[in-house]
Every structure is written in C-alpha cells, then in structure tokens.
Amino acid sequence: MNIAIVGAGVGGSNLLNSLINVEDVKITMVVDTNLNSPGILLAKKYGIKYSDSMDSIRSSETDIVIEATGNEKVSKMVKDKFENSCTIIDSKAALFLMTLVRKDIDNITKMNNQISLIHDTSSLVEYQIKEITLTIEELRNLSSNLLSYTQLSNEYINKSDTIIKYVNEISSKTNMLGLNASIEAARAGEQGRGFSVVAKEVQKLANDSAGFSKEIDQILNKLSHEINKINVEAKKLDSLSEKQIVASNHVNDAIANLMEESNKHTTSSINPS
C-alpha cells in the first residue's frame, strides 16, 4: 500500500513516524511548503522522497493521499487533484488518525520507559545476586574449613587422651613405688628416716600428677564437646549455604527470563507487525 502525506507538521510527522515501520505500507512522498518542517526532516532521515509541491505526487504510484494540514484550501486542492485516482483521507479523518497515533506513541514511550526501568532494575538485582552468591561461596568455604579444623582438633584430643592415660599409668606406678619406699623406710627404722621423706615426696608428686591429669582430661572432654557443637553448626551452615545457592540460581533464572521478555517487548514496540 503506497501512501503520500500532504502536510509535514507535527501531525504529519507523527503519522510518518508511526507508519514507517508498518509492514505492507510504503510512504512514497511527503509534501510540505516548508522543507524544514518536522515531517520533511524525518523523511530525509529515512530516505523518503519529499517535495514542496503536490505535483510531485504520482497518482499512478499512490493508493492513499493523507491530507494532514487541516487547511481548507489545501484540502480542496488535494480533492480536485486526486479524487478520481486515489483514496483521500481528509484533515478530520487525519486528525482522528493523528490523535490515535499520538496516544499510540505515548503508550509505546511509556511502555519502553517501564521496560527500560525493569531492565535496569533487573541488571542491578542480578549484580547484587551475584555478589550474594560469591558471599555464600565464601561462607561455604569457611564452613568446610571449620569442619576440617574440628576434625583435626578431635584427632589432637584423641592423641591427648592417649598421653593422659600414659601419664596416669606413670603416676600410678610412681605412687606404688613411693608406697613401697615408705614401707621399706619404716622397716629400716632410724636409718631409713631420710629415705622416708623422699618416698613421701614421690607419692605427693604421683598424687599431684594424677590430679593434674584428671583436670586436663576434664578440660579436654569439655573442649571435645564444644568442638562437636561447632561441627554441628558448621554442617548446618553448609546446608544453609547450599539452599541459598539454589535460591540465588532460581532468582538469576527468573531475572534472565524477565530481561529476555522485556527485550522482546522493546523490539516488538519498535518494530510493530
């Protein structure tokens, strides 16, 4: 369908801007006495033929002539010249079309602004989600390190238990040795008095060692209990991190779909079918 537009002011410019991307529609000529009017400048931009005279419109190549000036004299000239060869849309019908076009352009502009806002917001959210995901990965690594540290600490505690048992065994034998020494000192009478003092000190040392060993064992048991609690919490942290990663991936997928849809709508609004 070939269309010529007479009148390239704001209304004609809006018509041209709206029709330029419509399939099966070709703008063959834009006419206005002012070659610096908005519609003429737009025609130059799109490479559409333009003129300051209606004589440039070839009726044989034109199906519809749109009179967009609203000037009665121009309207009569268009009617006299093209009534028998082309379909004429007069200024009133053109005004109606231009009103619809302006609303259409406004709606498209608003929609594109909203889509742009959604796109920008989605990009920002996507960036923040990536930052959160990186933080979650760091927490996950921290959890893994904590689990490794607690396992290593438990190994040290187990080794300490072995040492404590060995110390207890030495303490027991030392105590027994001190007891036997005391008995022998008693049998020796006056000659064994000095040896008796040594034997008592050995028994005291054995008893002190046993007491310290018991205290250390209690401390290690408490430490083992706390480490087990840390181990449980670290496993919870690891599980929570995994859930957060899954949730972040879902959000990323949703944002990607939203951006894809917004891009589709932007393209369709720019190139309507």
TrEMBL record:
GO terms for biological process: signal transduction. The gene is mcp3. This is Methyl-accepting chemotaxis protein 3. PROSITE patterns: CHEMOTAXIS_TRANSDUC_2. InterPro entries: Gfo/Idh/MocA-like_OxRdtase_N (IPR000683), MCPsignal_dom (IPR004089), NAD(P)-bd_dom_sf (IPR036291). The keyword Magnesium does not apply. Residues 162-273 form the Methyl-accepting transducer domain. Transmembrane segments: none annotated. Pfam families: GFO_IDH_MocA, MCPsignal. It comes from Clostridium homopropionicum DSM 5847. It comes from the Bacteria. SUPFAM superfamilies: Methyl-accepting chemotaxis protein (MCP) signaling domain, NAD(P)-binding Rossmann-fold domains.
